[in-house]
Amino acid sequence: MKKLKILALLSLTVSVLVSCFPKASQVIRSLPVESKEQILSQYSSEEIAEGKVLYTNHCGTCHDLKEPESRTAEQWNRIVKRMIPRAKLNDRDGQLVRAYVIVNAKSS
Ligand code: HEC
C-alpha cells in the first residue's frame, strides 16, 4: 500500500514537472516554412520589434549576432528550429524572434 502511494506521488510530481516545462522546441519545429508576406500578415509591427529585442539579447551569446539579411526566409525557417531551443526561449518569444529574422531576411 505504501509503495503504491509513493508511486502515485512520484508520477504526479513527474506530470506536474512536464506540464510546467513544455518543450519549447516542439511548437517551433511544427511551424510551416513561411515567407515574409505570410509572417507580416500574422504579426504586428510591435511584435516584430519585440522579436528584434529578444534576438539581440539572446542570439549573440554563443556566437556573434548573425545579420538577418545574411540568409533567406527559407534558410531562417530551418535555422531557428535549431537555435530557438539553444537560446532557451519559450514558444512565444521564439516565434517573435523567428518572425523578426524572416521579415528581415534577404530575398531569395
Ligand atoms: C547555446 C549557444 C547558442 C545560442 C544561444 C544560439 N546559437 Fe546559433 N549557433 C550555435 C552553434 C554552436 C552554431 C554552429 C553549429 C550549428 O550550425 O549548429 C550556431 C550557428 C548559427 C547560425 C549558422 C547556421 C547555418 O546553418 O548557417 C545561425 C544563423 C545562428 N546560429 C543563429 C542563431 C539565432 C537566431 C539564435 C537565437 C535564437 C542563436 N543562433 C542562438 C550556438 C548557439
Automatic annotation (TrEMBL):
This is Cytochrome c domain-containing protein. Keywords: Signal. Residues 1-24 form the signal peptide. The keyword Transmembrane helix does not apply. It comes from Sphingobacterium allocomposti. It comes from the Bacteria. The lineage of its organism: Bacteria, Pseudomonadati, Bacteroidota, Sphingobacteriia, Sphingobacteriales. Coiled coil: none annotated. One of its GO terms (molecular function) is electron transfer activity. Transmembrane segments: none annotated.
